[in-house]
Amino acid sequence: MRISKRIYLPWHNILHFSRISFIFFSSAVFAGGPFASLDSLDTKQINWYNLDPVNDNVQGASVDKAYNEIIQNLAPRKKVVVAIIDGGVDIYHAELEGKIWTNQDEIPGNGTDDDQNGYVDDYHGWNFLGNRDGENIHFENYEYVRIYKQYDSLYKDIKTINELPEAERNTYRYYIASREKYRRERTKYETEKYYIEFFESAWDDAVRTVKVYLDKDTLVPADLVHINTNIDSVRKSVEFLSYVYQNGLTPESIKEYKQNNSNNLNKKLNPDVNYRAILSDDPTDIGDTDYGNNDVKGPSSEHGTFVSGIIAASRDNGTGINGIAENTEIMILRAVPDGDEYDKDIALAILYAVDNGADIINMSFGKGFSPQKKFVDEALQYAGEKNVLVIHSAGNDANDIDETMQYPTKAFSDGTMASNYITVGATTGIPDEFFVADFSNFGRKNVDVFAPGVDIVSLYPEDKYNLASGTSFSGPVVSGVAALVWSYYPELQASEIKDIILQSAARFEKLKVYYPADEGKRNKKTKFRRLSQTGGIVNAYNAMKLAEKVAEEKKVH
Fold first, then answer.
1. Are 311 and 363 in contact (CB under 8 A)?
2. What is the pLDDT of residues 8-23, one digit of tens each?
3. In the chain, where the domains are located
4. What are the residues whose beta carbons fall under 8 Å from the beta carbon of 108, sequence distance 6 or more?
5. Which CATH class is domain 31-138+275-556?
6. How far, in Å, CA of 533 to CA of 523, rounded?
7. pTM, whole model, 2 decimals?
8. CA dihedral 66, 67, 73, 74 (to 10 degrees)
């Protein structure tokens, strides 16, 4: 699924008027938008990921400093192609003009595979979530639901693993883990549905009570200020509504949460729906590739457009935001639905990116089960052989992914590690005890570096903007920095770009931070350097300086 930020909703137990905390996982990472312009957003949030801790007093990625103090004296030597494997991109957004990769060997719209790469009319990339009739997948089951559905009829009556032959036991364990995950998630969202409905009812009752007391047909927050009464029902209603208004909850936001809950229960957690039927393929056969279409936007391009803007939105064009890498093109590969992606689609998207000239692949998605991991491993190994850098967001479960696996991963099944793969966690702009985003995954072995990922402003479809948080957006910061460096030093290899980014990261040896955790549970600290391999934050200025040094040394040798 597209990796997104955890959203925490405070609800009230109206009967006892005590606060409870409820975790809400949402694919809608956006915070209140979209916005037609940036005028309604806090100026401190706009482009902060480009800023420098010394020059701007914000712990961004020092991109502006790199442009102002290094790049202004250099000329780019290569147009870097970044493949965005995501849910689709609005290629017509004004701030992406001139930034969309075009397959020059393909004649658009003629219904012919002109370049004979196996994809008809793939002018800007490919959509692995559609068919030749133009139908597209929007929602999908979570992977654990698919596994549960696949094996339930076979194993549901098994009482003990000892009933099975040795050859089936690993499959049975996989089934049990998936079944337990499925049951936990259904229970969670069913409970959440109850509280949403309870909250809605309480809100309606409170509004009605205060309206009757004031003898008014409408109610605004200011009406509550001067109410002073001993009538218990009115007093509690005023207290409840004051809390609601102060926390920015609106009928629209509750409607959105309710819709998200419904999407989870009735679509992504529904084992009775086969969304992939429209593709008519076998998802366990990597050789079955006769599906897809060239609709790279698809029905849900919000996430991919946001990711693309961080990397490549036009800089200093007098409007909107500044992307990180100016001399960059975006190749769009739609393979991530609202739900969990299929391993086969991801593998084929990686292969497409490599074979069609991508230098960098950005992957802002992840899941906890990977039944065809072999497909993805082989595609990643191929990318490494072809000098393509892969950058992956670490995920938003506040987990140590050294212990709890998040897929895809740089760790291959044979125990080796990909040398061309960077995993990225998320930080805020202030290096204090809350520096690490409360939702970010971490891991001293499996997370390489951190990058800005909280309150990021980027692009939204239809020439709009939005504000969002997640490792989905810290990953593209690193992709942007990698593209920036590579465009000036094209003689470097993917593994060298990776090493430069990691070695040049800004480090905080003594900084102590809270471990990522659910709201209200951040009560344990550690040294920031222990949460990733580098213990650092990506830094474009440092990376450009180090790249120059490495490039000079290569000339000498």
1. no
2. 443 333 333 333 223 2
3. 31-138+275-556, 145-268
4. 121, 123
5. alpha beta
6. 23
7. 0.93
8. 90
